[in-house]
Amino acid sequence: MKNDRGLLFVVSAPSGCGKGTILYEILQDKGFYYSVSATTRAPREGEVDGVNYHFLSREQFDARVAADGMLEYATYCGNSYGTPRKEVEEMLDAGKNVILEIDVQGAMQVKERCPEAILLFIAPPSVDTLRHRLEKRGTETAEVIAQRVAEAEGEIACAPNYHYIIVNDVLEVAVSDFRAIVRAEQLKVRSAK
Ligand code: 5GP
After folding, report:
1. Cβ 81 under 6 angstroms from ligand 1
2. Rounded alpha-carbon distances, angstroms, from residue 123 to 16, 110, 159, 169
3. Distance from the CA of 138 to the CA of which of 56, 94, 129, 187 falls in 20 to 30 A?
């Protein structure tokens, strides 16, 4: 009766939605594996190679894509981001629940390639709240914030393509909603192949 393969969760949220904080809580459960993405974006202060991202040059990134080493990849605000395929497969086979924290374009690629993937969208209570959160975080210039807010509006329009939408207004509620979804998915009857 028990499926030993882990579940694949795809989590998208506009930049500044508090996604990192929610995932930090979820990842306290050792049954989860957070897939470290590759990116051509420059590291932000405090970000560590191999922990936050695998920071790659444009040439290195393109070579991985050409070798079919990415489960999905996308361009976001001028930089490339992608999910290394091998680690994800290995972790699912080992029975871990894998979390991909990726943008909307990448999520739609995963939905098509891995129909069993569970897609969660984390939304801000409003676009204004999002803008304020980004300004408060202070890691981006005003120009980049404007670009990310515009990007967010497009992303929110894609939320109906996901299986679940979590509104992050009160953090504890959002985390408990996320855990409820995980539990329900673990208990779900999946047809034997
Ligand atoms: P940031 O630059 O703020 O770390 O990430 C920008 C956007 O890229 C976020 O929406 C984030 O979820 C997305 N992202 C991070 N890693 C990946 C990835 O591997 N693939 C895709 N498609 N998007 C990613």
Report:
1. yes
2. 10, 20, 8, 9
3. 56
